[in-house]
Give the backbone structure.
Amino acid sequence: MEYQIGRSSYLMQTKGGICPPLTGEYHTDVVVVGGGMAGLFAAKELIQAGKKVILIEKNICGGGMSGRSGGFLTPDSELGLRQIEQRYGKDIAKDIWDYGQGGQDAIVNLAREEGFQCDLQSEDSLLLGWKKKGAQEVQEEYEARKEYGYDGTYIPADKLSEHTDGKYYTSGVRYSNCFAINPMLFCQEMKYYLQEQGVQIFEYTTLQSYTHNTVKTSRGIIHCKNIIFSMGKVTPEVHKDFAKDTYGIQNFITMSEPLCDEIVQELFPQGKLMCWDTKLAFTYFRFTGDNRLVLGGGNVFTAGLPFDILYPYGIQNVIREIKTIYPDMQPFAFDQYRNGRIEATKDMMPIIDRDTSHDNHIWVQGCVGLPWAAASGRFAAQQLLGKKQSLTPFFKRDRKFWIPRRSNSALIKSVVYGINNLYAMKRQQGY
């Protein structure tokens, strides 16, 4: 099997040219470091508030974690509604869920209003129970949605074939008002939109150093009043403390050749769906506008490896599994592949907080899922603008973890994060 790896593929499509790197000296109100979904939406919020904004990106906008995602637009990320309720209680759970929903709405509304060419698809979500244990998780999620007034249809095992023709799934919960995009194209479209709004954007511009009111790159310097750091991964050279707050979960994405309409209809009799299952290292899949199946996943072992798997080994087991679940997929090739890492915190919730050494610096980290990244970028900008926000305490970096931050140096970082992630999803209460 041969895989395309490069910008010619759907997974790495770009639009137009690049923004030239920053050279020379500039003055601005706010510098946004990072051109992913969080940084782009932070810049949007700030420019609309009348601030002068410069955004720098070390690659191209969307070239990092945001552009390497599966393109799902749903408030679900690593944590379901019931898991959020378990941790924060009923009074807060709805606010946190609506936070993710607000990020989704911001992405979809902008794409529609501005006519972004980003393969925006409206597809219902379907959470699938994996074998017997998964059936209980699906039931709990359905009941949570019902309690909070969110739409959802519970699908028992004997009715599941009416929605999806997959084996081994034991139940499902289906709900509407969900979407998907080509995330790389969306970020590129948003880049040009922000330029029209007055944001200065410089790509292939790497942060070298910064002070309270300056940002230095290899070819220039920016004098500013505030800085928002929305980098996918923070290295110790950038900030020795914030670098400890996330760990890159390794993930793999592949894409099939286009499927004919008849096969799509057999797989999903009631229309295309965005699906994911209840496995710890879950598999997720959806269709593009031209009937390609975007398939992502991995396994518990590869997720925590400290080195990157650059070859398709990481996705091959996922492909074999999906072809077992859906035998009609057997003849079709998966010919595009991309690996990447999802920078996540120990409890799978974002960090949006000020630097204690520089109160004009705000850091945005660990935004798992495009809607959460968009919401977090907006949140950081509003925080900078002095707007009062009720969720601020829940996104502070000094919140408690089951295995505390000081244990990072005593244990292997991937082990610490793996245990904390599992605890956060299954047992954690409070924040």
